[in-house]
Amino acid sequence: MKKIIFATCAAIVAFVGITLTTDAQAAEKNPAIVHRQGTYEVVAGHMGSLKAILFLGGEGDMAYHAEAIKAAWEHMGKAYPAGSDVGETRAKPEIWQNMPDFQEKGKAAYGATVELVTAAQSGDKGATTEAFKKLGGACKACHKEYRKK
Ligand code: HEC
Q1: How many Cα atoms occupy the beta-carbon half-sphere of 119 within 13 Å?
Q2: Which residues contact 30 (CB under 8 A, 6 or more apart)?
Q3: Would the CB of 33 count as within 6 Å of ligand 1?
Q4: Residue pLDDT, tens place only, 116-134
Q5: How far is 124 from 145, CA to CA, in rounded Å?
Q6: Of 8, 14, 27, 89, which is most buried with the most CB atoms under 10 A?
Q7: Measuring CA to CA, how many Å separate 80 from each of 19, 44, 89, 126?
């Protein structure tokens, strides 16, 4: 009987797993954490849409998505204030220990986004693909050092 209950629980966990991030955010009350995670989700959503256009033969407005990423970064605000290292967050403590380096990584991502906007506005898919990859690299470079798995 215990085994059956366990199997049922595992199945439920697997089923609701996809909403876990949202649940974690709902439990989190620190506005800085909730705001930055929500904004990263917006950026990631537009990256996904661009991926569809650039790599999967999808239809869409490249400039819109690129500009939306830029706008999201510009609305990040003070995303890592003191005290926002505690809670439902994957931000590593190293961020606050190496703030200038962390900010450099943020600037690199913003710079790559500006290039992405220029390329996307020109309508040149090749150039937009290159800029997209560069931005993807900037996301990864920061996550590798400053985001928990
Ligand atoms: C300067 C560092 C930095 C850059 C650049 C960066 N991120 Fe992140 N990202 C983080 C950190 C730190 C977290 C964890 C935030 C938290 O949990 O409080 C995170 C979290 C996320 C999350 C999870 C949000 C959630 O719901 O918990 C996504 C998705 C994400 N980033 C996507 C991206 C994408 C896409 C890019 C590039 C276009 C990017 N990030 C660039 C540092 C960065």
Answers
A1: 20
A2: 83, 84, 86, 87, 89
A3: yes
A4: 999 999 999 999 999 999 9
A5: 32
A6: 89
A7: 25, 19, 11, 35
41 lines ligand 1 (CB under 6 A): yes
Residues 6 or more apart in contact with residue 26 via CB below 8 angstroms: none
Residue with tokens 């991926």: 51
**For position 16, what pLDDT does the model report?**
46
In this prediction, the residues of the chain whose per-residue pLDDT falls under 50 are 1, 12-18
Measured CA angle at 91 (ends 73, 15), to 5 deg: 95
Q: From the alpha carbon of 84, which atom of ligand 1 is closest?
A: 18
Contacts of residue 14, defined as CB under 8 A and 6 or more positions apart, other chains included, come to none
